[in-house]
Design brief:
- By secondary structure, this protein is α+β, with helices and mostly antiparallel strands.
- It folds into two domains: 159 residues, no CATH class; 132 residues, no CATH class.
- The strands form seven sheets. The chain has a three-stranded antiparallel sheet with strand order 2-3-4, with no helix packed on it.
- α3 crosses α4 and α4 runs antiparallel to α5.
- The longest helix has 32 residues.
Length: 362
């Protein structure tokens, strides 16, 4: 039976930028090239792909995996993220790893940062060598001996074991916490480098323990209360452009699973076409157009903002607060000479009400 209404239908999509099955079977791979590599024109080059990669491939950089992904704004596609050395450092040493490649304020801190930088560079180099050895095996000429191929395989297995140790040390130390950098974890899994008994939840990105054989893809809480995005995709005539899981992050308390997090949707208002965020998937009007006064203004064809004005006060003479603008970009709003923040946008006012450092003045 065909639908009578022309209203868009929703799509229930599991939360998470990737799945383990998708990571283990990427759609494609891209190979980094040197900066001086030539660009193909209409005439092309009289070389094979193997010869080109041998001459112009940058063997100091790992390959990039292309993983399937659905965007409610652009539709079906894929994501590709290239990790850097600083990402490896942050994965191993936490937030302080972000400063490993910066100069230290004193010799003691500089010595520690040099050690962290060396460990990150070593893991990054092993990952790049692991990728290029696999390509060498695939593109080996017909005359390559069995001994030569076995040598490539033995070296790759040794690198895989060393990279798995790096991965296991972090996952074991951070078990029960949010993964330090999901991109690094996805990079390892896309190369079939996994740690038995430890995984990252596909939904909430928390490291959890699981069985070695037939490991679970999501943690216990997400199995009991699977978080899903109920999309009305913009690309299919809806209003959603994205979504995220809001706080608080759930944890296991006394061995019992906590409550799942709410989903917050980024959408484009069907009336004024301004960006807004809501935890109700069915809401397609922003706070300026969806309220009683907004309905009257839409009926009369007036301004979406009208004469409304919201005032907030903070501690101190000058206050500057980060906000999300109507076009979806990030920005700041500052107080006036009287120390108050004023706005005529109900969406921005809603963001300011969630700031504990501000109080609303009626």
């Amino acid at each position: 039976m065909s639908r009578i209404s022309d209203a868009p239908t929703s799509r229930a999509i599991p939360v998470g930028p990737w799945t383990h099955d998708a990571l283990r079977s990427p759609q494609a791979w891209s190979y980094p090239l040197k900066e001086e590599a030539p660009v193909f024109d209409e005439t092309g080059f009289n070389v094979t792909g193997r010869e080109f990669l041998i001459e112009w491939g940058d063997r100091s950089v790992p390959h990039t995996a292309h993983v399937p992904y659905f965007s409610p704004e652009h539709g079906e596609g894929w994501t590709a993220s290239q990790i850097r050395k600083v990402d490896i450092a942050r994965w191993i040493f936490g937030i302080r790893g972000s400063f490993s490649f910066m100069a230290g304020p004193n010799p003691l801190i500089q010595s520690e940062r040099d050690r962290e930088m060396a460990a990150a560079e070593d893991a990054y180099a092993k990952l790049a060598e692991f990728d290029w050895l696999g390509l060498d095996f695939e593109l080996a000429p017909e005359g390559t001996t069995v001994t030569g191929r076995k040598g490539l395989t033995r070296r790759r297995l040794k690198l895989m074991s060393e990279l798995r140790e790096v991965m296991a040390e972090v996952l074991g130390r951070k078990q029960g916490e949010v993964v330090p950098d999901p991109r690094v974890y996805a990079t390892f899994v896309s190369r079939r480098i996994e740690v038995g008994g430890l995984r990252v939840c596909e939904a909430c990105q928390i490291i959890f323990a699981t069985r070695v054989n037939r490991p679970a893809s999501v943690c216990r809480t997400c199995r009991r209360h699977p978080p899903r995005y109920r999309y009305f995709p913009l690309v299919e005539g809806g209003w959603h452009t994205g979504a995220r899981l809001g706080p608080p992050a759930h944890r296991f308390v006394n061995g019992r699973a906590g409550q799942p997090r709410k989903a917050f949707y980024t959408a484009i208002c069907s009336s004024c076409e301004r960006h807004f965020e809501s935890n109700d998937a069915r809401r397609h009007l922003c706070r300026n157009c969806g309220g009683p006064a907004g309905r009257v203004r839409r009926r009369r064809g007036g301004s979406p903002l009208g004469r409304q004005l919201y005032r907030f006060a903070g501690e101190g003479a000058a206050v500057s607060v980060g906000i999300r603008r109507a076009d979806g970009s990030q920005g700041t709003i500052s107080s006036n000479v009287h120390g108050m923040i004023e706005t005529d946008d109900a969406e921005i006012a809603s963001q300011l009400e969630g700031n504990n450092a501000l109080r609303r003045i009626d």
